[in-house]
Amino acid sequence: MTRKILLRRDLLTDARREANSLRDRYQAANLVCFNLVSSPGSGKTSLLEQTLRFFGQKHQIGLIAGDVQTTNDADRLQAEGGALVAAAKARSFIENHVGVYPDDIQAVFASVAGHRLKPAGSTRFRSPSELCQHVIDSVAIP
Q1: DSSP classification of residue 116
Q2: CA separation for the pair 105, 63 (Å, rounded)
Q3: How many domains does the chain have?
């Protein structure tokens, strides 16, 4: 016997609103975004690893790994340069965001990248944190 459950409101209204807002922001910033979804073992992570290797030196690529059961894929992709994304994803979770926002990335950037940056001798930046802040201030938020 089949039972019907009457829903008094759409359960995905908030998620749709947020997704539409993000799509508008990405389009306004001329960003191309992909959502890669497929069954386990189909090669998604391998495809992303190869994409990062091929395009990562030529283009700015952001990546969010969203495996809800393990961190295996995120760990593999982090090896291709995803430490910033992993930290931003963690901040997003802590802040109860629906997704990772630009301010999540900005908030963790210095902690993740600061120790990798060394201002050159003739630069106006006295410390890695100043250089990180300059990078944050110089990159437009979509």
Answers
A1: G
A2: 11
A3: 2
| One-letter amino acid of 111 | S
Instruction: Report the C-alpha gap between 48 and 43 in whole angstroms.
Output: 9
Backbone angles phi, psi at 59, to 5 degrees: -135, 155
Give pLDDT tens digits for 20-60.
888 888 788 777 777 777 777 788 878 888 887 787 667 76
| 132 and 104 fall within a common domain | yes
- Whether the Cβ atoms of residue 31 and residue 140 lie closer than 8 Å to each other: no
Q: What is the number of residues in the chain? A: 142
pTM of the model: 0.42
**Distance, CA of 79 to CA of 5 (rounded, Å):** 46
How many CB atoms within 10 Å of residue 104? 22
The answer to whether 49 and 80 are in contact (CB under 8 A) is yes
| C-alpha span between 138 and 70 (Å, rounded) | 35
Residue-wise pLDDT for 86-107, tens only, equals 788 888 888 888 888 888 888 8
| Residue 29, both tokens | 């910033």
Domain co-membership, 18 together with 73: yes
User: Measured on CA atoms in the order 95, 101, 106, 112, is the torsion positive or negative?
Assistant: positive
